[in-house]
Backbone:
């Protein structure tokens, strides 16, 4: 190809891209947002903001860049886990089956890689073999585990765990709780009690309350975040199962309404399948 | 945000049901809100579009737009169409010949293992000998979970770690055959629909057992991804039915509609809790109302329609026209309300009427109001403004009530009049004209 034809093609491409957004392109943007579980309200609002931010002859590329900036501005900055004064307790909560237990195993694995010795605490004394699940992870990872029989009092497990961590120099204390629907009042009260017991055992604990959300969820994740946050004061989110093609747009609503940062992203079932949340990477996947 | 949405939806129902005649534009405006409600319930965009098109065709039909109660008819078309797209309910699973098997598949954490135990319980109750088969060799303690549940239910369980998926499946089948069980319920590992290795693995299980039904277990909280989940699992397994779990939470469950839209497979059950008896046969009407988030409004419309004969409606309409609403009309309307049964229970959830939430219209109070009005002279009933304090005293002692109660009644009547005027302007829904 001659230099001239190349230039001509590039110019043609540039000119083509300078055509203003058509209504079908607007619709494409809308579909993109809705299919990513952003929710109808925030999708509408974001597109309105986008419209206001664009010149009359804006291109699709400019629109996407602005949209990215608008969405990015909704996500709060995250500082990772802030743990002081060991042993620090981290409480993992969430509705049934979102990925709490597995996320603990993954975080424990990466903490051990960093030279720490976390304690895995099976305070899910409700679900069949929930304790065994975490215990098997502990064995695999070569880390200490503490738990009680099924039907035991989760607050008691947590109490014992803090003693054990203090006496054996284990840190942090990763506490697995039973999955529960945020609509079940007494089960939410049970979590409050666990939190209270931790605070009584050692002032300032738990230092983190992490809500685990399933990336495959839709708008209900927002209701989950609201109630868990109101009940317990959630300090951060873990987005599990993000190896799924789901795009988890509900995170924007949650971030906007309660300024909750996402701290980690789970991307598979293996111990190493976890990484710190990156807003930029999240947006790459969300807008893809 | 949900308050906001349901408010919008309430507004549209209010507008629709308040109108004597609807235009095609009215229907379109209403459908826009319905689409938003469905999206907020996690129904996939393409299912939403198809649904709204179907509804539009039916709703703009002449009979509906020109009927006596077009707004209510449109609301009904929406609900009926949704019910049809979701239905029909099949009353659970029936297995026509034994020995046979059921296989449960789905994403990680959707509720397969728990649902296996729930199904085993149901078939055991029917007198079948059931074997639970644990084929999740991947998640730590997955087999322990199934074994525990099996033991709790007194159901035999085949759960062996060690060999690969293929070999274990073979062994499980041999065990099933050798012990002459009626039904094997196969618990498989959770997997992403995009993981072709794992999808091929579960396909092999299906090929070995050839189950009576392969069942997709779907979490009610699933978002837009449900569509591709349903599609891919179908492509690999052509599964037979769907079970929707975690309906005890407050998820709307719109994912089920996405699945039905791409597969047309029946939904068999709702999971409504973590215990083994927390499984209910699926009802399309219930899910339809839940997805729409309409609360009990449809029930109320129906009740209202039954309670008020057309004749009464016409009478009120005439009175409204003359703007001469009197206490006799009021009494008649109140009696009509009494017939609606426990209306106070319905009021708080009724779209468009948050202001009525506090006003309890119980039978007892209606009886007392009736007594008060019956103690009035005809003139007083027609021209309540003449009721001064000495008349009030007479009426209250005649009806065995207090002057204060008479005052309250007259105040309510004033509100009734005011609202009726608004109704005339088309502000209030038709079926609510009689409430104040
Ligand atoms: N693909 C994928 N699967 C995951 C991920 N995290 C967890 N899972 C799987 O999801 C399922 C549920 O995970 P668990 O860790 O048991 O979830 P949980 O929240 O502890 O569940 P309950 O205690 O039963 O409420 C398991 O099959 C996990 O292997 C992830 O990041 N990606
Ligand atoms: N609230 C509620 N929890 C459920 C229901 N079905 C399953 N679960 C819970 O969801 C979690 C995952 O269920 P499980 O059966 O292990 O899912 P699997 O990974 O698909 O086998 C567990 O905590 C179950 O107790 C349901 O209908 N309602
Ligand atoms: Mg768990
Ligand atoms: Mg399982």
Residues:
């Amino acid at each position: 190809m001659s230099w001239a034809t190349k230039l001509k093609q590039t110019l043609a491409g540039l000119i083509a891209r300078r055509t203003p957004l058509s209504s079908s392109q607007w619709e494409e943007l809308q579909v993109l947002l809705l299919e990513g579980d952003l929710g109808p309200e925030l999708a509408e609002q974001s597109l309105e903001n986008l419209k206001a931010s664009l010149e009359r002859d804006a291109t699709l590329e400019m629109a996407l860049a602005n949209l990215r900036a608008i969405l990015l501005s909704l996500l709060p900055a995250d500082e990772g886990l802030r743990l002081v004064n060991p042993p620090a307790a981290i409480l993992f909560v969430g509705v049934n089956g979102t990925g709490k237990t597995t996320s603990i195993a993954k975080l424990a694995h990466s903490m051990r890689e960093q030279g720490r010795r976390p304690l895995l605490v099976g305070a899910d004394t409700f679900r069949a073999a929930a304790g065994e699940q975490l215990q098997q992870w502990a064995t695999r990872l070569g880390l200490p585990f503490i738990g009680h029989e099924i039907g035991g009092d989760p607050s008691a497990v947590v109490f014992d765990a803090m003693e054990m961590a203090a006496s054996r120099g284990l840190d942090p204390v990763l506490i697995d709780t039973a999955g529960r629907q945020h609509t079940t009042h007494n089960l939410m009260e049970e979590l409050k009690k666990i939190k209270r017991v931790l605070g009584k055992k050692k002032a300032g604990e738990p230092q983190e309350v992490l809500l685990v959300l399933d990336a495959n969820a839709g708008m209900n994740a927002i209701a989950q975040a609201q109630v868990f946050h109101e009940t317990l004061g959630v300090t951060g989110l873990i987005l599990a199962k993000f190896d799924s093609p789901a795009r988890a747009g509900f995170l924007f609503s949650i971030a906007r309404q309660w300024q909750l940062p996402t701290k980690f992203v789970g991307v598979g079932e293996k111990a190493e399948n976890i990484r710190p949340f990156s807003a930029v990477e999240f947006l790459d996947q969300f807008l893809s | 945000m949900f308050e906001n949405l349901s408010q919008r939806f309430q507004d549209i129902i209010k507008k629709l049901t308040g109108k004597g005649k609807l235009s095609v534009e009215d229907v379109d405006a209403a459908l826009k809100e319905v689409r938003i409600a469905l999206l907020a319930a996690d129904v996939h965009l393409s299912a939403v579009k198809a649904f709204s098109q179907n509804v539009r065709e039916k709703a703009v039909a002449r009979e509906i737009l020109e009927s006596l109660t077009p707004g209510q008819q449109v609301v009904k078309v929406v609900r009926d169409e949704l019910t049809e797209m979701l239905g029909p309910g099949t009353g659970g699973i029936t297995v026509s010949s034994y020995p046979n098997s059921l296989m449960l598949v789905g994403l990680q954490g959707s509720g397969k293992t728990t649902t296996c135990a729930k199904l085993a319980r149901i078939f055991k109750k029917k007198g079948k000998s059931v074997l639970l088969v644990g084929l999740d060799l991947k998640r730590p303690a997955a087999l322990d979970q199934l074994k525990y549940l099996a033991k709790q239910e007194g159901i035999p369980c085949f759960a062996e770690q060690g060999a690969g998926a293929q070999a274990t499946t073979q062994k499980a089948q041999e065990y099933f055959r050798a012990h002459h069980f009626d039904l094997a319920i196969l618990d498989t590992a959770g997997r992403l629909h995009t993981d072709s290795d794992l999808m091929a693995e579960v396909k092999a299980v299906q090929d070995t057992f050839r189950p009576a039904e392969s069942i997709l277990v779907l979490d009610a909280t699933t978002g837009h991804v449900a569509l591709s989940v349903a599609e891919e699992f179908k492509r690999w397994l052509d599964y037979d039915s769907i079970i929707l779990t975690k309906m005890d939470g407050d998820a709307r469950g719109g994912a089920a509609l996405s699945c039905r839209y791409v597969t047309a497979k029946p939904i068999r059950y709702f999971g409504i809790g973590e215990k083994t008896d927390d499984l209910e046969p699926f009802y399309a009407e219930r899910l339809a109302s839940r997805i729409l988030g309409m609360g009990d409004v449809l029930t109320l419309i129906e009740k209202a329609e039954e309670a008020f004969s057309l004749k009464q409606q016409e009478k009120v309409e005439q009175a409204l026209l003359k703007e001469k609403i009197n206490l006799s009309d009021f009494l008649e309307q109140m009696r009509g309300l009494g017939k609606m049964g426990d209306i106070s229970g319905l009021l708080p959830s009724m779209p468009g009427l948050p202001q009525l939430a506090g006003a309890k219209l119980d039978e007892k109070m209606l009886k007392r109001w009736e007594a008060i009005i019956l103690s009035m002279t005809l003139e007083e009933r027609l021209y309540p403004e003449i009721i001064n304090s000495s008349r009030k005293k007479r009426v209250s002692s005649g009806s065995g009530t207090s002057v204060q109660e008479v005052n309250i009644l007259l105040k309510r009547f004033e509100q009734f009049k005011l609202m009726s005027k608004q109704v005339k302007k088309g502000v209030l829904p038709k079926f609510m004209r009689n409430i104040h």
Residues A 96-97, 127, 179, 181; B 106, 108-114, 190, 245-246, 248, 271-274, 278 surround guanosine-5'-diphosphate (ligand 2) (CB under 6 Å). Confidence is low (pLDDT under 50) at residues 303-309, 341-359, 426-436 of chain B. Strands of chain B lie at 100-105, 130-135, 157-158, 183-188, 213-219, 241-245, 267-271, 279-281. Chain B touches chain A through 48 residues (CB under 8 Å).
